[in-house]
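The protein record now logged underneath.
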Amino acid sequence: MTTAEFLASIPVFSSLTSSQLKELADHWKVVEKNYHEIIFNKGDFANTIYLVREGGVTISINTFHDETLVLSHLGKGEMFGELTLFELSKRTATASASSKTILLEMSHDTFIHFLKKFPQVAINLLAILSNRLKDTNEILEQQVTRNVNEEIETELTFADRAADKCSAFIGSWTFIFIFIVVLVVWITLNTYAILFQPRDPYPYILLNLVLSCLAAIQAPVIMMGQGRQSKKDKIAAELDYKNNLKAEVQIEEIMTKLDQVLSKLKGTGA
């Protein structure tokens, strides 16, 4: 497949004729990247735009704790580096090859000149930018502080609910009081001939058997409850991490914007 044929398959260039696609194809430079190789880093000066010809690209940012937060994965035919297209500024994220990748690269000035010559491409590009902005907003607005109990509740089976109720009852004062009363009555009736001759005299072998069976049933029921609580704690910790990470990213973006504003104010002498 030629570069012109490849460009024809991309929606942003769908309005171009064959001759226009050939003209555009001549301005793209083929760039090859190996697995995990950096295409550009966050903070680099932006003066190029890219198309993924083969392979894939990962867009990510690093948090204050040097943890990598993946923003998106791009595949064949997808464009990136366009966020700084109309304003020569610094890259807002890091791009790296997620496999052996072939890219098409074009300079900022060349692409702007092409957009001026073919305004319909600019309109198509604005539509893509709008969709990406919408996707980004959806990610930012994603509810990460959801109710853990409600989330676990939807996954519970009838047996899980029964085990939880049994576990809650076993761990209650009501169970303790009932258990004490039953023990006292049992021991009393089987120690003294009050209503009938003792059926389970001291050392209360039948009572020991009942207690052993009760303990054998209690253990797995309680462990099931503890397992679900552990799962709740794990989800809660994960949600807290996402909340903190989201806050870190937003703070870092605010600080970056503030630095840019201060730089411009210094440049104007304000």
Summary: The mean pLDDT is 78. The chain has two domains: 3-141, 148-268. The two ends are 54 Å apart (CA to CA).
